[in-house]
Structure to design on (547 residues):
């Protein structure tokens, strides 16, 4: 296994075999040196021809899709040499697929709504993906998205008044985009869709999943259905792998329907995860003051919200109930969770008062701030939407504020301030602000898509192919990887994706995926283990040992 800095690795197959010229098709069983799949298997496409480097024989085989992904991750991590040079033969690649290749189109469900419009604008500037079909209501099909954008933004400004709501201009990049239908989407052959659709239309998500399109959704539809992973990448990104391990078939790739939680939960869970890893959070009290845009284009009666605070408990939105259920699902060891939600006359940015009770003692406020600032579990994975600082901590008095602090890191950072410790009842109290349209909506779904597309899907393909070579099944392979990550996450806080990827990259030299000693695992930076319980690897070895 070859490893570069920053957790980016390009696996290479074992010893070089016969060259292409010395072997017949029957003698040479070519598999991609990155994902271990054969040509056109597992949805990976064709091998690059001619070989993009000086490798020969089996080692020369590499899918265009795999090499593009490898170069994309390297470029994102600013490892220019790593993306330009083959680690197997040390020769420069003859192609740069990141710059020359076409971007992957991504469709949008609910593309004419407030969140969908913002997502469409973001996809026009994304380094990996492009804007695919934009779906809206039947009344808008065929209309220009720009016209729909201007009409809806102006309607919101007129409804609430310019002092509260300021219409956002439509980007010039969307001027020529027309609203599509579901039929247009199916004919486009897109692989991925991000959904911001109304809950009443959620059946369209299920239909697209059945049609073989992976859906990454922020819609409340089926958000509490257990088979649909509820994912915040920094918190429980491994849920993507766990979900596949439960449903993958021997020869079929599972098409996921991945859910993002409520906009408040997206921001709160990132902060909770950082503090839970350090102190063990057992109880949480959450009071939210949510912007008008949290309801999308749906309009409140101005008399209820303009100049007022509108409590959401027992309303049709059921916001507090949903947030509590989502956080209890994401943090299953959380014993107490109370949520109180309110709507306030702010255009964008949810403000949250967060109070925590912890298992382990909290020493100083400075320590809490350091833990929050250092939290970056996805660093080095090369996800374009991942902010350099997932949590921004402000020391100024009277911060954060929605109007000032909602747009850090392009709206993807959670902004924290007003930190206090040991106030006599709660161990930690703080205030946070989350951009409900970006981090709390389309940004969360896009980050889930990037994690799945750049890491989870190729990882599953890689280990499944190897397991099949060893006489096992794809289901066995994915379950093994899932068990490894689950055990690792239990032993040490946070999902360590770099460790999992390096572990999976080494399987080419193993006669079995379960041949992993503690010393070998520690070589990948996993150990030492923090308790005395056996690792999943130890357990598996004992299980498979002859009686």
């Amino acid at each position: 296994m070859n490893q570069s800095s920053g957790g980016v690795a390009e696996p290479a197959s074992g010893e070089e075999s016969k060259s292409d010229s010395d072997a017949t098709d029957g003698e040479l069983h070519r598999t991609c040196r990155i994902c271990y799949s054969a040509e056109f298997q597992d949805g990976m496409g064709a091998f690059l021809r001619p070989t993009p480097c000086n490798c020969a024989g089996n080692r020369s085989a590499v899918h265009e899709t795999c090499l593009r992904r490898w170069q994309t991750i390297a470029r994102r991590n600013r490892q220019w040499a790593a993306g330009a040079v083959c680690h197997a033969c040390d020769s420069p690649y003859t192609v740069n697929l990141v710059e020359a290749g076409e971007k992957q189109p991504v469709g949008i469900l609910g593309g004419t709504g407030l969140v969908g419009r913002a997502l469409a604008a973001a996809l026009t500037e994304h380094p990996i993906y492009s804007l695919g079909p934009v779906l809206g209501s039947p009344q808008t099909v065929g209309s220009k998205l720009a016209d729909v954008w201007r009409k809806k933004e102006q309607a919101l400004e007129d409804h609430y008044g310019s002092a509260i709501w300021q219409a956002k201009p439509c980007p010039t990049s969307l001027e020529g985009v027309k609203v599509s239908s579901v039929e247009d989407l199916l004919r486009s052959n897109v692989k991925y869709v991000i959904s911001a659709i109304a809950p009443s239309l959620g059946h369209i998500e299920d239909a697209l999943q059945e049609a073989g399109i992976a859906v990454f959704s922020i819609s409340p539809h089926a958000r509490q259905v257990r088979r649909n992973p509820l994912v915040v990448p920094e918190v429980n990104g491994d849920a993507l792998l766990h979900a596949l391990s439960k449903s993958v078939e021997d020869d079929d790739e599972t098409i996921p329907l991945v859910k993002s939680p409520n906009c408040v939960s997206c921001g709160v869970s990132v902060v909770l995860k950082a503090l839970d890893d350090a102190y063990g959070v057992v109880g949480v009290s959450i009071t939210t003051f949510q912007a008008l845009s949290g309801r999308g284009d749906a309009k409140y009666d101005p008399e209820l919200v303009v100049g007022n605070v509108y409590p959401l408990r027992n309303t049709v939105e059921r916001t507090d109930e949903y947030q509590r259920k989502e956080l209890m699902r994401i943090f299953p060891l959380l014993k107490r969770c109370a949520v109180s939600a309110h709507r306030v006359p702010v255009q964008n940015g949810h403000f949250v008062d967060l109070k925590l009770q912890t298992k382990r003692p909290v020493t100083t406020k400075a320590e809490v701030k350091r833990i929050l600032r250092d939290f970056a579990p996805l660093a080095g994975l090369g996800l374009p939407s991942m902010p350099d600082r997932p949590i921004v901590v402000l020391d100024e008095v009277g911060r954060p504020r929605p109007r000032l602090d909602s747009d850090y890191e392009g709206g993807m950072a959670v902004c924290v301030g007003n930190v206090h410790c040991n106030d006599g009842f709660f161990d930690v109290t703080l205030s946070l602000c989350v951009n409900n349209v970006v981090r709390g909506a389309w940004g969360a779904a896009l980050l889930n898509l990037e994690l799945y597309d750049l890491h989870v899907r190729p990882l599953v393909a890689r280990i499944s192919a190897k397991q099949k070579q060893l006489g096992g099944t794809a289901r066995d392979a994915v379950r093994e990887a899932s068990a490894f990550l689950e055990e690792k996450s239990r032993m040490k806080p946070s999902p360590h994706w770099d460790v999992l990827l390096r572990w999976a990259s080494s399987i080419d030299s193993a006669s079995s995926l379960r041949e992993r000693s503690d010393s070998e695992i520690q070589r990948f930076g996993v150990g030492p283990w923090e308790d005395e319980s056996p690792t999943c690897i130890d357990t598996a070895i004992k299980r498979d040992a002859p009686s």
Notes: The chain is about 35% helix and 15% strand. Residues 438-469 form the longest helix (32 residues). The chain has three domains: 1-101, 104-222, 264-436. Residues 1-28, 248-252, 490-496, 507-547 have pLDDT under 50 and may be disordered.
